[in-house]
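Allow me, if you will, to draw on your knowledge of protein folds for a short while. I have a record of one protein: its chain in single-letter code and its fold written as C-alpha cells. Kindly check, if you would, that the fold set down in the C-alpha cells agrees with what the sequence suggests. Thank you for your consideration; the sequence and its C-alpha cells are set out here:
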Amino acid sequence: MNRTFTCNDVGRNHVYIYVTDSKGNQSSCLTIVEIQNNANIPNCFPPPPPPPPDPEDDDEDVQTEDIHIAGKVTNAFGDPVSEVKLSLESAQKEITVTTRVDTVSITRLDSFQNASGFWVFRYMIEKKVVEKSDTTYKDIKLESSTNAEGVYLLDNNEKKITAGILKAYVPEKDPREGVNARDVEALTKFLLGQSSFESPYQYLAADLNEDGKVDTDDLSALIKFVTSTAEVLPGNHKSYIVSAGQKFDTPSDILTAELRASVGLDSITTALKGMDFVLVRKGDIVKANQDNLISELTYRSASIEKDAEHSITPNPVADMITLTVQAQYKHNIQVQYIDATGRMLRTMSLPAVEGTNQYAVSVADFNPGLILYAIWYNGKKVTGRLIKI
C-alpha cells in the first residue's frame, strides 16, 4: 500500500505500518507522520476545517449521517461464509482517570530546649490529606460476525472511531469441508498441463505445504488428506482470510505476496461499504458440484485410466497394485513407469497368455505423487496415471 502526501496533508497525519514475517503472521500499528513545508511552497497548507453547525438552525433540519462499516465475506467461489468474526480496533485508547483522596497519619519527631536548659524530645502525629490518581487505558473496539448471507455491519455511531484497523479472523470450521476428490483431480490436471488456474485463490488453496509453489508435493499431501491417510494438512495455516481489495498482477503472484487480513482506515467520517474479504481454504481448489458431490476417492479405486482390456487397482495406491490385462494371444507385455518430471522409474517385461492375466506389482519404493505409466500389449500402447500416496 503506497500513500502520497500533498499540501493538503501538511501537519500531523495518522499512518498505518504493516509487518509480515516469513510464517505469514501479520501485525500493524498506527504512527504519526508530520508533513512540513520546509521549502516554503506558496499556498501550501491544508484546507480549513468545515464551519461548526449554526445553533440557531432547527434541529429537525439537521441530519446525522449514519457512520458504519459494512461488507461481505465469501469463499473463493463467491459463496457467502457465515460466522466470520470481524473487528474495528481504534487507533486511540479510552483513557480513564480515577482519583481518590486518602487521609494518612505521619509521625514526626520534635525537640526543643526548656528553660532549665534540658532538651525535650517528643513525637507528634500529624494528619495529611493525600490525593492519588490511577490511569487506565482500554482498547476501543467494535465487533461483529457475518450472518447467513455472509454480510456484516459494524455500528460506529456510538463510539465514533475516526481511525482504526479493520480485521477479519479465520473461523474455526472443519478443515475437510469442501475438500474432496474433485480437488485431487483438478490439481492433477493442473500439474499435467491439462488445465490452468484462473483465480489467485486457486493457487493459494493448492499450495498445501506453503512453500510458495504448486507441485507434486502438494498433490501428495492433498491425496493423503482426502483419503484420511493424514489427519491434518501440512504448513501453518488451515485457511486464509484475504482482503478482497488486494489485487495481484498475475494469479500466481499470491504465492509470494504479503496477504492482508486487515485494512487500515485512516479517516472514518462517513459510512464505509464494500469492505469485503475472501476466505480461502487450503485444498479447496474447485467448487464442489452439489448434484454429484464426491467426497471419497473410492470412485477411482478401479482405475483412473482404463479400457476394456486392462485395469490397475487400487488407485490411489500405497504399496501394491494389481495389473489386469486381457491378452488376445500369447506374448510379452511391456510396462513403463515415469514420474511427473519425466524420470524413468521402472521398466518391466511380463509374460502373458491368451485370456486374463493378473500381476501383483510393488510400488512401495516410488515417491508419493503423480505416476505416469505406459503398457504395450495386443499390438497397441495405452497410457494412464497412478497416484502414489
Q: What stands out?
A: Confidence is low (pLDDT under 50) at residues 59-64, 290-306. Helices lie at 181-191, 200-206, 216-226.
